[in-house]
Amino acid sequence: MLGPDHGRMEKTLDEQYGLEPVFEPGDQAESDPEAPLSGVADVDCPYCGERFATAIDLSAGSQSYIEDCQVCCQPIEMRLVLGPSGELVAFEAGRIDV
Fold first, then answer.
1. Does residue 6 lie within any of the structural domains?
2. DSSP letter assigned to residue 69
3. Model confidence over 1-37: pLDDT tens digits?
4. pLDDT digits (tens, 9 = 90+) for 43-63
5. Number of domains in the chain
6. What are the percentages of helix, strand and coil residues in the chain, rounded to 5?
7. Pairing of strands 38-44, 75-82
């Protein structure tokens, strides 16, 4: 049976062994507990023009990455710009060949 100090004992072991804290699904960012860590964006493919939904990860801050169109498989550069409290300020999807 676990005692009332069980949680503190685990934290002490993590600190003792230099372990990183565990991120549990559903946990919110410490800086803004109301800020979502992910979302869904509708993208109009710059190649074929078809619209599709894609998941975006807001936990890594502003970023740029390549994702293939779900319809025509062409590479699309996705650019996310986040504000100081982690909110999505801008989302752009563009061709990588221009």
1. no
2. -
3. 455 554 444 556 667 777 765 655 555 444 455 556 7
4. 999 999 999 999 988 888 899
5. 1
6. 10, 35, 50
7. unpaired
Judged against a pLDDT cut of 80, whether residue 65 lies above it is answered with: yes
pLDDT at 76: 96
73 within some domain: yes
Tokens of 56: 């975006």
What are the beta bridge partners of residue 54?
41
- Residue 11 inside a domain? The answer is no
Domain extent, residue 68, equals 29-95
In a domain, 67, yes or no: yes
Backbone angles phi, psi at 49, to 5 degrees: 85, -5
Beta bridge partners of 75: 68
Answer whether 32's CB lies under 8 Å from 38's CB.
no
